């Protein structure tokens, strides 16, 4: 985790050494906002810039997980939290904040979500996921005056395969 600051009356951003490491930037070169913007994944860049503009225009707190591509090509997810700093007259002086590399946490969260929603053997939606999807399909069909169907497939005497040949054979059959 590192910290940063941006002041309206100065050029560039001030980054702590830890923040520079999070962004994969060398300590000997100045960091500009445009340099950070170009690191944002292209698919989210416009949205990111729009959020920054809104944050400045409305002088609000900025909090987001931002997908970045570092100079060495690695993809990282960085948590950015920034809050406004005001002068004595109530005018916006700048922003201070923290950045944290949350890539591994996001990977683990995605794995947990996948384990909670999909069968590990077949990679099909599990019962809970199927029920949620079925409810959504029924609601959509009702709204659009369509019909919806469910296809169930049953394997006769599947228990016998597991009991006689073992669970690995049953997994292979599935």
Any overview of this molecule?
It is a single chain. By secondary structure, this protein is α+β, with helices and mostly antiparallel strands. It contains 7 helices and 5 strands, in the order ββαααβββαααα. The chain has a 5-stranded antiparallel beta sheet with strand order 2-1-5-4-3, sandwiched between helices. Helix 6 packs across helix 7. The longest helix has 18 residues. The model has no long low-confidence stretch (mean pLDDT 93).
What labels would you give this structure?
45% helix; alpha+beta; 174 residues; five-stranded antiparallel β-sheet
Summarize the helices and strands and which ones pair or pack:
Layout: E1 2-7, E2 14-15, H1 17-23, H2 33-39, H3 42-58, E3 62-69, E4 75-86, E5 92-101, H4 103-117, H5 127-144, H6 158-165, H7 167-173
Antiparallel strand pairs: 1-2, 1-5, 3-4, 4-5
Helix pairs in contact: 6-7
State the end-to-end distance.
45 Å
- Nearest-integer average pLDDT: 93
What is the rounded Rg?
Answer: 25 Å
Return the structural class.
Answer: alpha+beta
Strand content: 15-25%
Principal-axis shape equals elongated
- Give the number of helices: 7
Q: Biggest β-sheet, characterized?
A: 5 strands, antiparallel
Strand order of the largest sheet: 2-1-5-4-3
What is the ordering of alpha helices and beta strands? EEHHHEEEHHHH
Proportion of residues in helical segments: 40-55%
Residue ranges: pLDDT <50 for 5 or more in a row?
Answer: none
Q: How many strand elements?
A: 5
């Amino acid at each position: 985790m590192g910290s940063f600051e941006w002041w309206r009356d100065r050029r560039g951003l001030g980054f702590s050494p830890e923040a520079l490491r999070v962004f994969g930037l060398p300590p000997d070169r100045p960091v500009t906002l445009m340099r950070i913007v170009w690191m944002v994944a292209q698919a989210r860049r416009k949205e990111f810039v729009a959020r920054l503009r809104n944050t400045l225009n409305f002088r609000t707190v900025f909090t987001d997980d931002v997908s970045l591509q570092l100079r060495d090509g690695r993809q990282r997810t960085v948590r950015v939290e920034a809050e406004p700093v005001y002068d004595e007259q109530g005018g916006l002086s700048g922003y201070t904040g923290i950045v944290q590399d949350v890539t591994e946490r996001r990977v683990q969260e995605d794995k947990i979500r996948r384990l909670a929603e999909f069968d590990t053997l077949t990679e099909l939606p599990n019962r809970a996921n199927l029920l949620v999807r079925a409810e959504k399909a029924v609601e959509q069909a009702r709204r659009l005056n369509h019909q919806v169907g469910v296809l169930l497939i049953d394997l006769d005497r599947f228990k016998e395969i597991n009991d006689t040949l073992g669970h690995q054979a049953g997994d292979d059959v599935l």
